[in-house]
Design brief:
The protein is of the alpha/beta class. The chain has nine helices and eight strands.
């Protein structure tokens, strides 16, 4: 499936998806409302059926959309789609996020105003504009090894195409569905490789992408998910040779949180933070 666009799109949006339909519809509808129309969407479909085919065919009439089929997790999915990307700016939306109407226009203005900026990232918020998936910085910040963990999450990252090429493909041992213990961290690994190549990373709270909060409870299932995510982050710290001193804050912070919530009698929440601590520690030790 493809639609024809004669001119180079300004944005290539690379989305890997599996087991979701309603959320994909919401994202596609948000693309249809973008004020900046110079984009293409490349969907890396990892479903075992054709559930998305009618839906994607419908939206392919509204904007340029291509589909590749892949297996083996979000990083493999993105790597399968990236060779098709023609845009000047590349982004990696989740299949359960959605864009505010003027997001792409705002990203374009920032890159045009600041030609030295190579990667721009922003906040993750819910419908009510509350932070999700972390506590985001409240001011414009230049990224480095000490703060990159708070500089963005995959679906809030926008990078110049040459940066994506230079940083190389996503590490397919990292991320959801990789089949390894490391259930996240692929975007942090990408940012660290971009920084190592001398590229400039900027975080600005001016940009935001909508995404639901995944840790809405502290059930065993949620704790297990956080454990896998945390091992991925620890693995990235180890991969990029963080010293214990450099890694101390991300390793120790969840342990402090576990102690705090235990003191408040919030045992389930304390256990969740404790699983995060053990997950990050195991990943940092290479496990």
């Amino acid at each position: 499936m493809a639609t024809i666009q004669d001119t180079q799109p300004h944005f290539s949006l690379v989305m890997s998806t599996k087991d979701r339909t309603v959320e994909v519809v919401r994202f596609l509808e948000s693309l249809g409302r973008q004020s900046d129309r110079s984009f293409e969407l490349i969907v890396s479909d990892q479903n075992n059926d054709d559930r998305l085919a009618p839906l994607l065919a419908l939206f392919a009439k509204r904007f340029p959309l291509r589909v590749v089929h892949s297996t083996g997790g979000i990083s493999r999915g993105r790597n399968a789609a990236l060779p098709l990307a023609r845009g000047k700016i590349i982004a990696f939306p989740d299949d359960d996020c959605w864009y505010p109407p003027h997001l792409l226009a705002a990203v374009r203005r920032l890159f045009e105003k600041h030609p030295a900026w190579d990667v721009v990232s922003g906040r993750s918020v819910d419908e009510a504009m509350h932070d999700t998936q972390g506590r985001w910085l409240d001011q414009v910040t230049v990224g480095d090894r000490s703060n990159v963990l708070r500089m963005g999450i995959s679906y809030t990252i926008f990078a110049r195409a040459d940066v994506v090429t230079e940083a190389g493909p996503f590490d397919e041992t990292l991320g959801v569905g990789a089949g390894t213990p490391w259930g996240s961290g692929e975007e942090t690994d990408f940012l660290l490789r971009a920084l190592a190549a001398g590229r400039k990373l900027i975080y600005t709270p001016e940009l935001f992408v909508h995404h639901p909060e995944k840790v809405a409870d502290y059930s065993r299932r949620a704790r297990d998910r956080q454990f896998a995510y945390s091992r991925g982050l620890g693995r990235v710290l180890d991969k990029h040779r963080y010293t214990l001193a450099e890694a101390f804050s991300p390793l120790a912070r969840p342990l402090a949180g576990a102690a705090l919530f235990m003191a408040r009698g919030q045992c389930d929440r304390s256990l969740c933070y404790l699983r995060v601590f053990f997950g990050r520690s195991l990943g940092f030790l290479g496990h």
